[in-house]
TrEMBL record:
<dbReference type="Pfam" id="PF01547">
    <property type="entry name" value="SBP_bac_1"/>
</dbReference>
<feature type="signal peptide">
    <location>
        <begin position="1"/>
        <end position="37"/>
    </location>
</feature>
<keyword id="KW-0732">Signal</keyword>
<dbReference type="InterPro" id="IPR006059">
    <property type="entry name" value="SBP"/>
</dbReference>
<keyword id="KW-0813">Transport</keyword>
<protein>
    <submittedName>
        <fullName>Sugar ABC transporter substrate-binding protein</fullName>
    </submittedName>
</protein>
<comment type="similarity">
    <text>Belongs to the bacterial solute-binding protein 1 family.</text>
</comment>
<dbReference type="InterPro" id="IPR050490">
    <property type="entry name" value="Bact_solute-bd_prot1"/>
</dbReference>
<feature type="region of interest" description="Disordered">
    <location>
        <begin position="37"/>
        <end position="61"/>
    </location>
</feature>
Amino acid sequence: MRTTSRTIGTRRTAGKTTRAVTALAAGALAFSLTACGGGDDGDKDKEDGPSGGTEAAPSVTLPKLDGASLEVAAVWTGTEQANFKKVLAEFEKRTGAKVTFVPAQDPIINFLGSKIAGGQPPDVAMLPQPGAIKQAVDKGWAKPLGAEAVKELGENYSRGWQDIGKVGGKQYGVYYKAANKSLIWYNAQVFENAGASEPTTWDELLTTARTVYDSGVTPFSIGGADGWTLTDWFENVYLSQAGPEKYDRLAKHEIKWTDPSVKEALTTLAEIWGEKDYLAGGARGALQTEFPGSVTQTFTGGDQPKAGMVYEGDFVQVNIGETEAEVGTDAKVFPFPAVGDTAPVVSGGDAAVVLKDSKAAQALATFLASPDAATIQAKLGGYLSPNKNVKASAYPNDVQRKIAEALVAAGDDFRFDMSDQAPQAFGGTPGKGEWKVLQDFLKNPKDVAGAQRKLEAEAAAAYGG
């Protein structure tokens, strides 16, 4: 066992560049999560139509497509895939079209490339990265959205969510699914037994981790077998510590990964990643744990799980649902703590992109841009929509409702997942690029300089110099 120690206040200056509105968004998120209870306010706002439990007229008019058929490709599996199929079933019911879900593999751009080369592209693909949308446009695969879909986006989405679906000024993507990726979930019984409290700063997080460890439970579960979970850890630390301006520059590779700000963030991460006793299974175990398992092992085993906390986005609720834990009572959540002056607000998402410019494909994009489609999946849980006209009462529990409200309240001022903005070769390919380098860093958190050199080499190759 090693004792975690650090000098309070040594990493405070960089965060001062954070804009006030970002601080307000983070503050709103913190207040929302700590103020909410765990109850299922199922009776709330029932007068609000489809989001409140009673039926209402559809908000979007769709064409009749009897006899039409189309394919939708996405990497979603399990409950997430099953819930999305219910949305597609509603589209079928309203239009008469037949929709087939096509399971895709990561990286989806490679999957689409093989399908297109074989002359069998899907009609619509759900792309998880702005970088992937740009690649699809650059390759000539993606088709601009039609007037009806663009109109629906304008009515339901903030300018920021519209803009990240644009390439060259044209709208290509409908961000159907969003993620609040600045959350840490915890086993409430573990915290109660340990006498641990929800932290608001990185220093307090380290104290909470020590308190949980001293109670006999390993503090953190990390799904290191999926490299994207590690990029998310880095992005939250970097955004809070270095500030949004540097975050934006690093995302565009306008500054190098050998920059001192990256060194500072990696050094901070090592305060947890370098404590082998703080990780379920140690670094080796973490690297063999996939994301779903990192969640379930935190909420299985009562008050003696394999770990007390797990970091990831709102979608963790889907995996918690596979255990006996109840969100809001057994499984609770707090915002990712502030490393600099303010807590980070990092978002991600999946966008519908049309690959075949047909009436049916454009109609599906229009439907996915409507509150009708998002409300269906919101009711099923484990899903978050950036659509501002999806009422909070659509979400199945108070925790998720507050997360959704905070995301919409942030408006245009959020930072999209950095690795998702990068070329897929760097930020979105298993076993390569940033995913692989951070997995190596988790294995050896002392080698900060080596990790920086590797990150810069991989980024330079992917960004083209």
